[in-house]
Amino acid sequence: MSQVSIKSPKHCAKQGLNVDKLYKKLFFAFSGILTTLLLLILMIWIILRPAKPEFTLKEAAIYQLSLSGPNLLNSSIQLTLLSKNPNQKVSIYYDELQVYAAYKGQQITVDTFFPSFYQGHQDRNLLTASLVGAGLPVASSFNYEVGRDKTAGKLVLNLKVNGRIRWKVGTWVSGRYRINVNCLAVMALGPTLPTGPLSSRQGTVCSTTV
Question: For FRET with 203, which of 31, 152, 171, 186 sits at 20 to 30 Å CA-CA?
């Protein structure tokens, strides 16, 4: 007579427990490896301490700033910025950078895009752009504000750059981070409009947030 072996419920439960232990071991091993990698990346990041890029306004010139109709502005502005990577071990990719000019909180040119570029350790790049606006709507107080600036003898523009950057350490490249740059251009302005462009040659450091 052949012997029939029947496993008791207790024996089956014991086998199921072993499977559960195996899954738990795999889970903890995977979690340990992932945690170690994340801690390693964090330690490298803390040691390197990447500093945000620096921007300096080198020159700005207004070639046109006039109303063509009721609250419609025509503008033409040329600017040159100096971008610097202050890091010794971290490179930077600049993506989707766009620049525009603002006056008294009003955007007075359309967005102009800079080509994407790579910046090595402690490298510098000159960025030039022609900003224009044709028939842009502005507040009814625009003429009044310009008149006040003529009386004060100076006109102040905000030149703003928005976009995204990526950090590069060795072969590792980070995700995209938002960057916002604000530069002040102060230009002398007399009681009458000059025949040539209003210009500002300066080395003003711009405020940068990442």
Answer: 152
The full set of domain ranges for the chain reads 8-48, 54-209
Instruction: Classify domain 54-209 by CATH number.
Output: 2.60.40
pTM > 0.90: yes or no: no
Map 62-100 to HEC letters.
EEEEEEEECCEEEEEEEEEEEEECCCCCCEEEEEEEEEE
- Residue pair 57/81 in contact by the 8 Å Cβ criterion: yes
pLDDT digits (tens, 9 = 90+) for 133-160: 999 999 988 888 988 888 888 899 999 9
Q: Are 64 and 76 in contact (CB under 8 A)?
A: yes
> Which residues 6+ apart lie within 8 Å of 77 measured at CB?
60, 61, 62, 63, 65, 101, 109, 130, 131, 132, 157, 159
